[in-house]
Design goal:
Blueprint: H1 12-22, H2 34-38, E1 43-46, E2 49-55, E3 61-63, H3 69-76, E4 83-84, E5 87-88, H4 107-117, E6 120-121, H5 136-151, E7 165-169, H6 176-186, E8 190-194, H7 196-199, H8 206-220, E9 224-229, H9 246-261, E10 269-275, H10 283-288, E11 291-294, H11 300-310, H12 322-328, H13 334-359, H14 376-385, H15 394-404
Parallel strand pairs: 7-10, 7-11, 8-9, 9-10
Antiparallel strand pairs: 1-2, 2-3, 4-5, 6-8
Length: about 400
C-alpha cells in the first residue's frame, strides 16, 4: 500500500494515486531500478512529457511548482549542491536549518500559515532612527520596550519583563509607520507586517484561525514583532448597542486571547500597533497594549531639520528662508511638510516646462536645460497652496495622551 501522506502538500496526481491504491482501485506502480532512474538525469518521464522533479525526503517525487512555500524557502539557502537528510554529497554533516513553519495539527492550519508567511518582511526596510527627524520621546520609548530587552535580556526578568504590547497613536502623517520600519531595520527581529486583509477571511471561522496561526508563527520565529497598522479597523469598541457582526466579535475575542497568551510564554514576541483613532479602540485592547506612545506633530526644531534635508540650499545660491518656513508651518504634520517642499520644488520646473512648450522644438534628452533654483516667491506659493491636514484634532490626541499615554521624564 502507498505510504501515508506526509505533512507537506501533495500534488493532485500524488493525492489521487494514494487513494486509488488505498481503496484497491489500482496497484502501486513498481519502483524502477536506481540505475534506470539515474539515466534520466533528474527528470521523470510521464505520458511522454518530462518535468523537473525533487524528492521531499521520504521517497515521493514532486514537481517544484507543486512544492509548498516553506519547502521552497528551506531549499533557498542550500544552493545547487546535492544533499539528503541533512548530509551533503561530500560527506560533511550540515546543521539542520530552522523550518519556516512550526508543526501544525492539520493541513488547513499549515495552509493558513503559508499565506501569512508572505507578510513576513525578510529584507530590511532601510529606515534608521537617525533618518526620522524629531520624535525623540517616541524613539526612546521604543528602544526601551523593544531593543533593550533583546540586547540585555538579563535585566528584563520578573517584574521587569518586557512589554508585550505597544501602541503608536497620533495624527496622520506624523511618522508612526516610519517608526515601525525603524524597529524592523534596527532590531533584527522577524517582522510581520499585518493589515486587516491579512487576518480577515470570508470563510466562517478562518479569521480566528488566522489570528491563532499568526501568533504561533511569531513564537516560532522569536524574537519577532507583529506590526498591526490601523488597528482600529480590526478591534474597535465592542457592544454598546453597535450593529456588530458575530464574525467580527469572534475575531476580536481571539486577538485579545492570543495577546493575553503572550504573557505566559518566554519567547520575545512584541505587538506593535498604530492608529489615528485611539479613542475608538476597545478598552480590553488598551489594557493589553501596555505602552501607549503619542507621535505628535513635529516641533519647530524637527520641522527645520526636515526643511534643510528636503530643500537643501544650492552652493552659490541665495539661502532659503528656513525660519520663515518653520514659522508658517505650525500645525503641519511630517507628511504636510513634505508636500510643501514638493510644491516649492515644482515651481522652477513649471517655469522650465512652460518655456519648452512655447518653443515647440524637439530637444534631445542630453540637451535639455537644467532646472533653476528655488526662489523666495516659490516658497510663498507653496505655503499658500498647501494646507495642514491633521491640526484640528491635535487637542484630542493631547487629552488621550494625558489620560492613557506613556511618557519619559526629561
Amino acid at each position: 500500500m502507498a505510504d501515508e501522506p506526509s505533512l507537506t502538500r501533495w500534488s493532485f496526481q500524488d493525492f489521487k494515486m494514494f487513494y486509488d491504491v488505498k481503496f484497491g482501485r489500482k496497484r502501486e506502480p513498481e519502483k524502477k531500478d536506481s540505475a534506470v532512474s539515474g539515466q534520466n538525469d533528474g527528470k521523470a518521464i510521464c505520458n511522454g512529457n518530462s518535468s523537473n522533479v525533487m524528492s521531499n525526503g521520504n521517497g515521493h517525487v514532486k514537481n517544484t511548482s507543486d512544492m509548498a512555500i516553506y519547502e521552497q524557502y528551506r531549499s533557498q539557502d542550500q544552493g545547487s549542491s546535492t544533499h539528503s537528510n541533512g548530509v551533503l554529497a561530500n560527506g560533511m554533516n550540515e546543521k539542520p536549518q530552522k523550518s519556516l513553519l512550526p508543526p501544525f495539527e492539520s493541513a488547513e492550519m499549515r495552509t493558513l500559515a503559508e499565506s501569512l508567511s508572505r507578510d513576513i518582511i525578510r529584507g530590511s526596510p532601510d529606515v534608521t532612527w537617525e533618518s526620522i527627524k524629531g520624535l525623540e520621546n517616541a524613539k526612546r520609548l521604543l528602544k526601551e520596550a523593544v531593543v533593550m530587552p533583546i540586547k540585555y535580556p538579563k535585566y528584563f526578568t520578573g517584574l521587569l519583563s518586557p512589554w508585550k504590547g505597544i501602541l503608536l497613536f497620533g495624527p496622520p502623517g506624523t511618522g508612526k509607520t516610519m517608526l515601525a520600519k525603524a524597529v524592523a531595520t534596527e532590531c533584527k527581529t522577524t517582522f510581520f507586517n499585518i493589515s486587516a486583509s491579512s487576518v480577515v477571511s470570508k470563510w466562517r471561522g478562518d479569521s480566528e484561525k488566522l489570528v491563532k496561526v499568526l501568533f504561533e508563527l511569531a513564537r516560532h520565529h522569536a524574537p519577532s514583532t507583529i506590526f498591526l497598522d490601523e488597528i482600529d479597523a480590526i478591534i474597535s469598541q465592542r457592544g454598546e448597542g453597535r450593529s456588530e457582526h458575530e464574525a467580527s466579535r469572534r475575531l476580536k475575542t481571539e486577538l485579545l486571547i492570543q495577546m493575553d497568551g503572550l504573557t505566559r510564554t518566554d519567547e520575545l514576541v512584541f505587538v506593535l500597533a498604530a492608529t489615528n483613532l485611539p479613542w475608538e479602540l476597545d478598552a480590553a485592547m488598551l489594557r493589553r497594549l501596555e505602552k501607549r506612545i503619542l507621535v505628535p506633530l513635529p516641533e519647530p526644531e524637527a520641522r527645520k531639520a526636515m526643511f534643510e534635508e528636503l530643500l537643501p540650499s544650492a552652493p552659490g545660491e541665495e539661502k532659503l528662508p528656513y525660519d520663515l518656513l518653520v514659522e508658517r508651518t505650525e500645525g503641519y504634520s511630517g507628511s504636510d511638510i513634505r508636500l510643501v517642499c514638493k510644491e516649492a520644488a515644482m515651481q522652477p520646473l513649471r517655469r522650465l516646462m512652460a518655456l519648452l512648450e512655447e518653443n515647440q522644438e524637439v530637444v534631445s534628452e542630453d540637451e535639455l536645460p537644467e532646472v533653476g533654483p528655488i526662489r523666495h516667491e516659490d516658497i510663498e506659493v507653496a505655503l499658500k497652496n498647501t494646507r495642514p491636514s491633521a491640526h484640528l484634532l491635535s487637542h484630542r490626541y493631547e487629552k488621550f495622551n494625558a489620560d492613557y499615554g506613556s511618557q519619559i521624564l526629561q
